Amino acid sequence: MDTGRNDRNKPAIKGTQVRSPLSELIDRIGQEIAAENCVLFVGAGSSTEKWPRGRSFYTTIKAMTSLSESDPHTFPEVMQKFCDERDGGHHNLLIREAIDYIEHFLLPGPENRVVSEFSSQLATIPFFKIVLTTNWDPLLERALDVVVPMTQDRDLAFWDDRKKQVVKIHGCITRPHSIVATQSDYDSCVEANTLLFNKVRDLMATKTFLFTGYSLKDADFREIWDTITSRLGHFSKLAYALVPFASDEDIAYWAQRGINIYRVRDTQFLEGLRKHFVDAGMLPSDQLIKFLMSERSRIVKLHLKLKQDCDGGLSSAMYQDGLLHELDDILDALQLGTWRQQDFENDLGLMHKNVRAAHKQKDAIEVAYYSGRYAVINAFLEADCNELLPYFHPYRLAPLRKLVKGTVWKFPKRRKGKPNNQAPADTEGHESTGDTFFGPVCRHCAELWHKR
């Protein structure tokens, strides 16, 4: 492993290839991530502390206490001092300061773009099913579309292995009572949420951990990690950390404790990891995703303008419904990280089966609808960025580039002042001429719509 900055300046040995720390790290844990066996542990350095201007929350609060700015103090010590001096040991003022501090980063603008860069990129990689954090801000769960983050024992009742989970061991600002900040909070948080911390310990014992945004000097982190490694000994899993400016001493210290440190930036890692999965065919390219989004917008516009007053109009409407439903399902699945390659392939087989079944039953509506869904999932799996055919032939039952109306339905004009008549119960004799397959259904539906 490349463990020193000076190593990069050494000439390469003839016949060997110098590998970057990024490519080496991806080679080491890429398969674990793809198998969803890697847990991401995110600190403030990958969130609100990314903003280069202004003070961190730690220095902001410390400046409001009698503590000397030059003297080293831990985060919980500073928070405890503030509460004792400013609020009689209560947390109200501290939480208010935290809300004001975090709210500033949640507003649209450059601050939000910088501090949410990591979480936004993380959302494009579906293989991190569990994310742990000590951060109070809601950036991670918002980016990952997680409705209920795990902050306390009682939240575990809503844990779902099929979905992404965000575990916030120090609480969340949206639930102020859950915040862990002061020294007394730190001393009692494990006992207060034994189930949650047992979950964290189980994950550390069974999953590969990747830390980002930490200096690795956090008291909670050291305590939990030392507990795991002391109990498992040589059987504990090797962990990794992204620390761009780690010293050689830090690298050596943590290597002895089972954590390999890589001098790689968090967003640099996510960019490289996504490229790795795209090249391997495990994730769609950005170009394909943009294509799907633009196609959805295009089909929606065509769908809204389409008149369903003929065989071709209604068959195309059903077909476009299928296109839009499948586009929505794929884009939602990619955003939520709920589907994998095998799921998409299974969906393709299901749509093909449904089309064949509809043909056998001579159900033109279902043929058109499932043909639309099949067209989208097939284009997605083939990474085909050619425009989808937007219309459907009412008699050939095949996609088209232009609308073929077929039989146009003509309805008698309603007399003014006369109440609307009810649709006739007996629809026999209303079939469109020239069509013995699609017309009966279409004509009947159109007449019902016309009389409403």
Can you put this structure into words, describing what you see?
The protein has 452 residues and is α/β, with parallel strands linked by helices. It has 2 domains: 275 residues, TPP-binding domain (Rossmann fold, 3-Layer(aba) Sandwich); 166 residues, no CATH class. A 6-stranded parallel sheet has the order 3-2-1-4-5-6, sandwiched between helices. It has a two-stranded antiparallel ribbon with strand order 7-8. Helix 11 links the parallel strand 5 and strand 6. Helix 14 runs parallel beside helix 16. The termini are far apart.
The number of domains is: 2
Largest sheet: 6 strands, parallel
Helices and strands, in N-to-C order?
HEHHHHHEHEHHEHEHEHHHHHEEH
Q: What gross morphology would you assign?
A: elongated
Using the CA coordinates, give the radius of gyration. Answer: 30 Å
- Estimate the strand proportion: 5-15%
* CATH-defined topology of the largest domain: Rossmann fold
Average pLDDT over all residues: 84
Number of strands: 8
Q: What is the CATH superfamily of the largest domain?
A: TPP-binding domain
Corresponding CATH architecture of the largest domain: 3-Layer(aba) Sandwich
Specify the structural class: alpha/beta
What layout of secondary structure does this protein have?
Blueprint: H1 21-34, E1 38-42, H2 57-62, H3 75-87, H4 92-106, H5 110-115, H6 117-122, E2 130-133, H7 139-143, E3 165-168, H8 183-192, H9 194-206, E4 208-212, H10 219-232, E5 239-242, H11 248-255, E6 259-262, H12 266-279, H13 286-305, H14 311-336, H15 341-360, H16 364-381, E7 391-392, E8 399-400, H17 439-451
Parallel strand pairs: 1-2, 1-4, 2-3, 4-5, 5-6
Antiparallel strand pairs: 7-8
Helix pairs in contact: 1-12, 3-8, 13-14, 14-16, 15-16
